[in-house]
Each structure stands twice: as structure tokens, then as C-alpha cells.
Amino acid sequence: MKKFFxxxxxxxxxxxxxxxxxxxxxxxxxxxxxxxxxTPAIADLEKSTVATGKxxxxxxxxxxxxxxGIIDEVYxxxxxxxxxxxxxxKVKVIPELGTLNSAESRVRLAKINAAxxxxxxxxxxxLYDEKLISSEEYERDKITVEQAREELQTAQDNxxxxxxxxxxxxxxxxxxxxxxxxxxxxxxxPVKAGNSVIMSNTFNDGTTIATVANMNDLIFRGNIDxxxxxxIHEGMPVKITIGALQNxxxxxxxxxxxxxxxxxxGANQFEIKAAITVPDSITIRSGYSANAxxxxxxxxxxxxxxxxxxxxxxxxxxxxxxxxxxxxxRFRRQPVTVGISDGIxxxxxxxxxxxxxxxGLEKE
Length: 364
Hints:
Helices cover 26% and strands 41% of the residues. By secondary structure, it is an alpha+beta fold. A hairpin with a 5-residue loop joins strand 17 (316-324) and strand 18. The longest helix is centred in the N-terminal third of the chain and has 33 residues, at 97-129.
């Protein structure tokens, strides 16, 4: 019995030794790597860059009052169309007490002078009818009374302007009625009835009553990196895609490239503008986020490979051409000349035949 267990133990030890030897031998053998292969294909390539920005009207007009006061009524709201000279709001003038007092005093003085001039003229007219004064003196008195009447009217008009901001004789030109200066769409009306407003002058921009824009003349405004700006120029075609309108793209053409960069997140960015062509059936709102795709280069019907198959070594490029697949894959390192890339495929200008297979990614 003891002899049996001794033999069994020796057999077990021998089995362990053999398994260990086989395991170590298998581990020491080099692993055979198998790669996918790619065959060159004829295709069109485009190299493009994308600028981010937004769509907005070419010009947004800020409507400001010509007088200071309180908003009495607002006749329009954002989103409404408006014509040139159409009234947006009405301003009620709040007169300054010193100016009002001066205007009232001028009216009282003008009335006194006018009344005295009327009395003098009537007396001199009677003397003229009786041939007691000369015609020259009569004409002089007539001019004097007309001047007094004109001064009274001017003083009264000035008082009306101080109180109401307008005279009755020029109501059609009232500066209390805030009018649009263009045909377009009202984008914003930031004031309400009761708000105080300040007139625009040399020292103050004034209160904005409304923002009006022509929504038929839209542009894309965005930024492009300095590494790409040297490859674009005015007049290039641009394709605009808008996040809010994912099923549409719009044609545009580049019309402005800023001569000066602006630093943004540590990179130099140049502002660009592109005029957009929008069909009448589509409504675009001001401020939509958008991307502008600009084609930098095109290649028609060229030999292409996935860019992942290319080995870049300094200024040289290589591919690995399949020479044998049995019993295992063998490849030859082949120099090639490449052209433009769209980020996925790259053009092969020379060094490779269309029927040759090249090494791709490793099979999993």
C-alpha cells in the first residue's frame, strides 16, 4: 500500500513538472499579431474648417428719444413688424421748474409789450388817417406791432415746448412720438409705460426705446483660429448649420475677416462674417447659435486610404504593404507621398498602387 502511494506521488510530481514546462514554453513563444488590411479607394476629398458663432441681423438699430421725460404709452412690442416713421411709443415731457418759470415769465412780458404796441399802433393809425403823421412813421409803427405779435407767439410756442415737448403748429413733427427709422422687425422693447427716459446727446447715449432690425439681411458672425485664417479669403463659399434648425443648412459667402486677433481661452481668434441666403419659407431668429463650415481645399477622384494606416516620421510618410499572408502576415515598409486629408481619409499622391493592400488596425 505504501508502495502504491509512493508511485502515485511520483506520477503527480511528474505531471506538474510537465504542465509547468508546457506552460512556460507557450508563454515564451512570441505572440502572432494579426492586422486588418485596407485597400486604396478612389474618392473625392474635402479639407474644411468649422467656425462657431451665431446668426444675427447685419444692422440692429437702437431707437432713442430726442427728449427726456416719462414713457406715456407704448404702442408696439417685440416680434412685431414695423414700417419707417411708424410710432413705437409716446414720451410725456416733465418740465424743469427753472426753465418753466423762465418760459412763463417770457410770455407775460411779451403780452405786456404786445398790448402796448397795439395801443400805440391804433393811436398812430388814427393820426395817420388824419394826415397828422408821415407814412414813414406809420410804417415803422406797423412793423413794431407785428414784431410784438411775433414775439408773443414765439414765447407761447416756447412755453408749449417746455410743457408738452411740441407745439400745436408742428404736431406732425413731434419729438414726443418715438418713431422707427427703418422698416423691419422689433427685436426688443426694453421700456414700459412710466419708465423715465433720457435723450441722446454728446454726454449720454440715451435710453433705448426699441431695437429694430431688417431680418431679411442676416449674417453669420463667428471666430476662426489663427492656424486656419491664412487659408481663407473673402468670397469663399460657406455652409451654415444652425443648432435650432438641425434639418436645414444655408448657403453663405465669406465677406469679412478681421485684421486683428482677439485672445480667447489662450488662443488667438479672428472674427469672420458671412452673408447668409435664407429662403422665405424659413424663419430665423436673431442670436441662433450656428457653425460655419469653410472648405479649404478639394481633391477630385484621388487614391485614398484611412489616415490611421499612415506612419508619419518627421517630414516622411510610410505605409506597410502586405507581401504575404501565409503562414502569417508579412508587410513591407513603403514610403508614400500624401495630399490633403479630411481627418478620416487621406489622399495618396504616389508610392502605392491601387490594388495593393496595406496594414490597418490590429484585429481584436
